[in-house]
UniProtKB/TrEMBL annotation:
GO molecular function: calmodulin binding
Domain of life: Eukaryota
Coiled-coil blocks: none
Protein name per the record: IQ motif containing F6
Annotated InterPro entries: IQ_motif_EF-hand-BS (IPR000048), IQCF (IPR039887)
Organism name: Oryctolagus cuniculus (Rabbit)
Length: 127
């Protein structure tokens, strides 16, 4: 083999080696980029999940606050109706006691409670 052929062969071997080194470097760079992209996607998913949980927690707190306010209002309304009914019962009782003390008679009667009204038949016999 002459020197020119040897130089050509050496040049081919060197170019093959440089190509192999460049391809290996590019492969390593691509793998590193892929690893970084996977890590970044997982971090984005974690941040999204954290934001979703925070939004859910805030929504839950607001819903509970609304439920508590509604319960307080309903309790206040029920108590007001109860107090009105108790006051009405006291008025009726006081009038009834006054009437009973005035008449001192015999009272017969019947009452019947229907869906939304009270039917009352009273018969008073004076003695």
């Amino acid at each position: 083999m002459d020197t020119q052929n040897l130089e050509k062969a050496a040049t081919r071997i060197q170019s093959w080696w440089r190509g192999t080194v460049v391809r290996r470097t590019l492969l390593h760079a691509a793998l590193r980029a892929w690893i970084i992209q996977c890590w970044w996607r997982s971090m984005q998913a974690k941040m999204l999940e954290q934001r979703r949980r925070l939004a859910l927690r805030l929504y839950t707190c607001q819903e509970w606050a609304v439920v508590k306010v509604q319960a307080q209002v309903r309790m206040w309304q029920a108590r007001r109706r109860f107090l009105q009914a108790r006051q009405a019962a006291c008025v009726i009782q006081s009038h009834w006691r006054w009437h009973a003390s005035q008449t001192r008679g015999l009272i017969r009667g019947r009452y019947e409670v229907r869906a939304s009204r009270l039917e009352l038949d009273i018969e008073i016999l004076m003695t």
